[in-house]
Amino acid sequence: QVQLVESGGGLVQPGGSLRLSCAVSGSFFAVNVMGWYRQAPGKERELVASITRAGKTNYANSVKGRFTLSRDNAKSVYLQMNNLKPEDTAVYYCNVQGVREGYFELWGQGLLVTVSS
Question: What mean pLDDT, rounded, does the chain reach?
Answer without folding.
Answer: 94
